[in-house]
Amino acid sequence: MAETISMPKLGFDMAEGTLVRWVKNEGENVNKGDVLAEIETDKATVEVESSASGVVRKLLVEEGSVVPVGDPIAVVGSADEKIDETPTKVVEPKAEKKTDEQGGEELKTEPKAEEKPAAQAQPTPSPAAQAAAPAQEGPVKASPLAKKIARDKNVDLWQVQGTGPGGRVVRKDVEAALAGGTVDRRPQAIAPSPVSRPPSAEDETIQLTKLRQAIARRMTESTTSVPHFYVTHEYKMDALMALRKQINDYLGEDEKVSVNDFIIKAVALALREFPNLNASFAGDKVIRHGAVNVGVAVSVEGGLLTVVNRDTDQQPLRALSADVKRMVAGAREGKVKPDDIQGSTFSISNMGMFDVENFAAIINPPEAGILAVGSARQVPVVENGEVKVGWRMKATISVDHRVSDGAEAAQFMQKLAEFLENPVRMLV
Predict the structure, then answer these.
(1) In the structure, what pLDDT confidence band is assigned to residue 50 with cuts at 50, 70 and 90?
(2) Burial degree of 76 (CB within 10 A; 0-12, 13-18, 19+)
(3) Catalytic residue status for 401
(4) How far is residue 76's CA from residue 30's CA, in Å, rounded to a whole number?
(5) Which domains does the chain have, with CATH numbers?
(6) Which among 228, 233, 289, 401 is annotated as catalytic?
């Protein structure tokens, strides 16, 4: 029986996705689990797998189409099976949008058939007519850069048509006038100013990426609706750094474990003993999650993406490390699988590689907490009345006060110390 493949929901707040590319075409065989299409969400480009085996009988949307979650996108069935040739919904690609370089406004590209006839356009005065026009007096609205170019090229700005906001003359207007020979180049009669200043750079308006828009929405939601509190702890990292070196001496270059791998494992084991922190707030109840799935924040082009290591408390350190490396590489290439970015129950944000000593992170709703990790560094420490050099690392947990309290968070940080400061416990 033919099966309809729908736009999947890749995240609890996802409402729609853009079908970027069909990996399989109509008439091709497909097995359950094969990549069928690439979907762009507000977080990443995700490879969507087929939920059925058979032949791709019909593709219901075109590449570039924006499709609401749950709407059909393809039909998979047997080669001789009769299918409905009139799909419920066919989504066409959105009209191409362009951004005005001065105002940042989105301008829809109109079909050529709807363009106004050329006869309706305002006629452009000839150079002779322009030259005959009397010179106007007073200031002209123009950007600093446009004024500089006009001054250098002896261009009368009164004879340049401005296309910027409010009729303001901008750089491209002056350059267009010069290229078209429609300006009066008069000798510069005004003496140069005694104070020469470089022109101010024009403002630049940048359209937010979908990822940055999602981050803005989620973080605003978190800071305005979730009552955060914070607990900071400093950890002795001498034993962990020594054990990591010992392990990596036996591993290949691509297999070496990082300090962050140890931290992920330690957090997962500690969460097992503090189920309130491996939880989500749901109105009048708290959902304690059975699995410990640790999300790891990854810096990607345009923002941050959280990849999810599943059943982290049960994974050996080496397997955990390989899984995180795979997902981080996929995230930075812009291609991840749905399971790689959803289902986290607690998150970690590590800025140690940027030499950040300590910071606080914003909770990723609906999770109850996130751990912000600073750099492990060698610092002077006092032990038994003597000053020595030791490895220390600071970490701060942000907790939803609706789910947990300060005492429980402090106890969690102490439990975390038992694993980080005695790392062999994570290997047995």
Answers:
(1) confident
(2) buried
(3) yes
(4) 8
(5) 3-77 (2.40.50.100), 229-426 (3.30.559.10)
(6) 401
Q: Are strands 66-68 and 45-49 parallel, antiparallel or unpaired?
A: unpaired
Read off the amino acid at residue 29: N
- What is the mean predicted confidence (pLDDT) over 13-24? 84
| C-alpha span between 333 and 322 (Å, rounded) | 17
Question: CA–CA separation, 287 vs 307, rounded Å?
Answer: 21
This prediction's pTM: 0.65
Report how far apart, in Å, the C-alpha atoms of 331 and of each of 222, 260, 308, 317, 370 are.
23, 17, 11, 21, 20
What is the average pLDDT across 140-155?
A: 75
